[in-house]
Design goal:
The structure is a single chain. It is globular and about 45 Å long. Helices cover 14% and strands 28% of the residues. The chain has 4 helices and 8 strands; from the N terminus they run ααβββββααβββ. With 200 residues, the protein is α+β, with helices and mostly antiparallel strands. Strands 1, 2, 3, 4, 5, 6, 7 and 8 form an 8-stranded antiparallel beta sheet that branches. The protein binds a DNA duplex (13 and 13 nucleotides) through strand 3, strand 4 and helix 4.
Length: 200
DNA sequence: CGTTCGATGCACT
DNA sequence: GTGCATCGAACGT
C-alpha cells in the first residue's frame, strides 16, 4: 500500500480534486480500520470563490484553509453533520483552498461501517458528506489532523485511476447561485457510480 | 417511488 | 440573532 503524501496535495486544487477520485480514504481507530474509495468531491478555492469558507478572509474556523496542504478541515454543518475537507494548494501561494469529500464507496471495515451506520443499507453508508464521516468515525477530533503524515491514523492510500471519460463535472451542491462563482462546475464525481450522493 | 420539514451547534455579524 | 458545503423521518403518490 502506498500512501499519498504532501506532494500529492501541494498542487492546484482542481487537479487534486480530480486525482482524489479513485483514491482510498482510510481511518484507523481503536474499533478497527475503515476505508472507502473517493467517488465524489467538491473544490473550494481562491479569493473569488464566494461559496468557500475562506472567502471572507482568515477567521478562527477557516484558518486551516490558509495553511499547509494535506491538513484535514473538519467542521459541523447544520449543527448535526461533520464535513471533511483536505487542504489542497500549490506551495508558495496564499489563497484559501480545500477539497470537500462528498461520497465514498465502502472498501474495507464493512462490518464496522455497517455498525456505525446502524444497519442501514450499504448504499447509504457513505453516499453523502455527513454520512461518510459517520461511517469512518470522523468528527471534531480529526479537525487539523495531518492526513499526509506517514503515520497518520486518518490518511490516504493509492487506489485506482479513474479515466477522464468517467469523470463528471457539475455545479456544487447546496449553495445559492446569485454569485457567479457559486455555479462553477467544481463538483466532480465518478460516472454511474452508485455511491455518489443524490444531491438535493 | 417522490417531496417536505424539523433537528441542531457554532462561527460569524 | 442569523444562516448554513445536510440528513432522515414522515408523509403523499
Amino acid at each position: 500500500m502506498t500512501r499519498l503524501l504532501r506532494d500529492f496535495f501541494a498542487r492546484d486544487t482542481l487537479i487534486v480534486a480530480r486525482e482524489l477520485l479513485g483514491q482510498a480514504l482510510v481511518h484507523d481507530t481503536p474499533d478497527g480500520r475503515a476505508a472507502g474509495r473517493v467517488v465524489e468531491v467538491e473544490a473550494y478555492t481562491g479569493w473569488n470563490d464566494a461559496a468557500s469558507h475562506g472567502h471572507r478572509g482568515l477567521t478562527p474556523r477557516s484558518a486551516v484553509m490558509f495553511g499547509p496542504a494535506g491538513i484535514a478541515y473538519v467542521y459541523l454543518c447544520y449543527g448535526v453533520h461533520w464535513m471533511m475537507n483536505v487542504v489542497a494548494r500549490p506551495e508558495g501561494v496564499d489563497y484559501p483552498a480545500a477539497v470537500l469529500i462528498r461520497a465514498l464507496e465502502p472498501i474495507e471495515g464493512l462490518h464496522l461501517m455497517e455498525k456505525r451506520r446502524m444497519g442501514r443499507p450499504r448504499r447509504d453508508w457513505s453516499n453523502g458528506p455527513g454520512r461518510l464521516t459517520l461511517a469512518l468515525g470522523i468528527g471534531k477530533a480529526q479537525n487539523l489532523a495531518d492526513t499526509a503524515g506517514s503515520h497518520s491514523a486518518l490518511h490516504w492510500e493509492q487506489g485506482e485511476t479513474i479515466p477522464d471519460e468517467s469523470v463528471m463535472r457539475g455545479p456544487r451542491i447546496g449553495i445559492d447561485v446569485p454569485e457567479p462563482s457559486k455555479s462553477l462546475p467544481w463538483r466532480l464525481w465518478v460516472k454511474d457510480n452508485p455511491h455518489v450522493s443524490r444531491g438535493r
